[in-house]
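call fold target=Acyl-coenzyme A thioesterase THEM4
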Amino acid sequence: MPNSTVLKACEQTEIDLSGAADWVPFDAPALVGDSLRFVSGDSRGDRFRARYYRDAEQHLHARFWLGPEAEGPPGHAHGGAVAAIMDEALGLAAWAAGYPIVVGNLNVSFRNMLPLRKVVTVESRVVSVEGRKIMVHGRIFRGEKTFAEAQCLCITIPGK
Ligand SMILES: CCCCCCCCCC(=O)SCCNC(=O)CCNC(=O)[C@H](O)C(C)(C)COP(=O)(O)OP(=O)(O)OC[C@H]1O[C@@H](n2cnc3c(N)ncnc32)[C@H](O)[C@@H]1OP(=O)(O)O
């Protein structure tokens, strides 16, 4: 079977990215539009598929699926793919909290290799706001297993 056919087969698969019972879908493109294209913009893609939610306390969560085009170590996610998820999700968490920002500093700890073709959860918290500096913490996990943790310093955009 040619490679292109193998990749197409993956595209056809519907991935269950549904949220927890008390989460409400969050319309991220309505807030930041094309800024999401690099990571979560292709809902049928073979790299990332994602859906964002907010809980009752307005914290941002996401379900992410990483496909074959996000591969680093065999069968597992590339570190850059994990960092890209953190960059988008934690930056978006600041936007969703009302702060128009860019990411100034992102510190990612890779705790366990993240398996491809599994749905994982991203959780985030805006932990502090000091002037233009918004600190957001996040974690990628599935069940009891944490794959990555991150601290993201977001800086509000002057004039926004
Ligand atoms: C846009 C929609 C996004 C939606 C969700 C998707 C999220 C995607 C997130 C991204 O990928 S954003 C793209 C990657 N980030 C960048 O390209 C940012 C590039 N850097 C800049 O544009 C500027 O350096 C920046 C706006 C962050 C800061 O420049 P400024 O000249 O406006 O601010 P300044 O340097 O005066 O710093 C303001 C404060 O922030 C602090 N700061 C700035 N950059 C920092 C840094 N990198 N590390 C630590 N602290 C930093 C700085 O020390 C200072 O603290 P104090 O007020 O306490 O003095």
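return ok
Helices lie at 3-12, 28-32, 37-40, 79-96. The mean pLDDT is 93.
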